[in-house]
Amino acid sequence: EDDFPQPVEVPKDKLLGGLLPAGFDERSCLSRYQSVLYRKELPHKPSSYLISKLRSYEVLHKRCGPHTESYNKTLEQLQSGQRASPSDCNYLVWMSFSGLGNRILTLASAFLYAVLTNRVLLVERGVDMPDLFCEPFLGVSWLLPSDFPITDQFNSFDQKSLHCYGNMLKKNIVGNSTGFAPLPFVYLHLVHDYDDQDKLFFCDQDQSYFQKIPWLIMKSDNYFIPSLFLIPSFEQELNNLFPEKETVFYFLGRYLLHPTNPVWGLVTRYYEAYLAKADEILGIQIRVFDTEPGPFQHVLDQILACTMKENLLPKINQNEPIIDPSGNQKTKAVLMTSLSSGYFEKLRDLYWEHPTVTGEVIGVYQPSHEGYQQTEKQMHNRKAWAEMYLLSLTDKLVTSSWSTFGYVAQGLGGLKPWILYKPENRTAPNPPCRRAMSMEPCFHAPPFYDCKRKAGVDTGELVPHVRHCEDMSWGLKLI
Ligand code: GDP
């Protein structure tokens, strides 16, 4: 017994076990410290090494970030086109490229690479980056200044560019000989269509060349972290940072990606209105990679087969018009996301027209049905981000194969999803889905190259914690 009244609400750990720094203005980005109110208790804790590494990154960012003295100095060099001389500040510029799910995954990848190589991450604004994400570092912006001298060249960067690393290798510009002083910047093409030379980015020899380049400019649409774990010079550091390998995106995402207030409004209003009161929340993320819009019967069949077989949703009772409500009155909220409304309507009607065999009450909700992917519309991407975030707040999650949208949700939520297999020839696969091995995203376009032996190798067979993905046989993921 205790004579002192206890507070009803135990103050939660808003800094996520030291992952987040204290001291931000709370109102300018409510999600940063409020996210903990909507999330389940962290099943994993960040390592003290990760925390100290993040704190020292923040110091570096503050010293070298936009418009600091060091930044201005390295800019002069870039502008004059001089050959590089050693600088105490080196940079990684992340180019805004591809769909929002892809962008989130590449941003986390680029940040980890920056941390590993003591570079300062600067983010190209694109159409909407500042509209979607809060500043993650205290005091100094992570956004690439609009007057950055070579932004007008960004659009022309491709595999054939003079500064593209793969192309430089082809043209023998990267020599070990002293004849070539390093360039002030190098463009790294890590897009899914990259070739064998571009892929040498993942080799130690090539990494040592980059150490002399003050500006690296990176374009990617892939979660390339699994292959960083296969680079010998990064191995020990990564082990120290992430003793639990499957928590990489989980921690990086929670550290780096905070929805801006408009997006946070979309998240919290929806959550409070439709999800908060349910006993359990099931997320179902439907992404159909088909040229025709759908909805398709085989996809609906697959959703039902998976959720019933895995006991994620109760079966319906076809014979009874009503079940005595005195029984199990648990409510389950199903949060669906999809570009189309067809699957949601079918599932909602199913549980309206029939009772469940368990007596559970099932509510089915879908925030939007945008029809098709739209890149330039502000509200479209806000909703996409809000929906990924809402999915990450569910208790159990079903995702679609190959979708980075689903990867973001599972990773941020710390959830091992049930993955719906990719349908072939418009038929529902059997089995319809399987449980993921880990909550990590899949790297869709990994290299299959042994840098030491200079020969092909199955990179999914080298170490126990980097394996082929459940949903893409040639992909790589951390487990
Ligand atoms: P991926 O193509 O599934 O890997 O995911 P991306 O996020 O990279 O690209 C898909 C884009 O399509 C998203 O960024 C959204 O713009 C849109 N989109 C796809 N599915 C949904 C959805 O369920 N809800 C919303 N609001 N947008 C979606």
From TrEMBL:
Q: Does Mitochondrion appear among the keywords?
A: no
According to Swiss-Prot or TrEMBL, what is its membrane topology?
A: Single-pass type II membrane protein
What's the top EC group for this one? transferase
Q: Does the keyword Cell wall biogenesis/degradation apply?
A: yes
Which terms does the record give in the GO molecular function aspect?
glycosyltransferase activity
A single GO BP = cell wall organization
Q: Where in the cell is it found?
A: Golgi apparatus, Golgi stack membrane
Q: Which UniProt keywords apply?
A: Cell wall biogenesis/degradation, Glycoprotein, Glycosyltransferase, Golgi apparatus, Membrane, Transferase, Transmembrane, Transmembrane helix
The cellular component terms of Gene Ontology attached to this UniProt record, alphabetical and capped at eight, are: Golgi cisterna membrane
> What's the EC number here?
2.4.1.-
Report the principal subcellular site. Golgi
Q: Which domain of life is it from?
A: Eukaryota
* Biological role: May be involved in cell wall biosynthesis.
Which family does the record assign?
Belongs to the glycosyltransferase 37 family.
Q: What is the protein name for this chain? A: Fucosyltransferase
User: Entire protein: which part is shown?
Assistant: 129 to 607 of 613
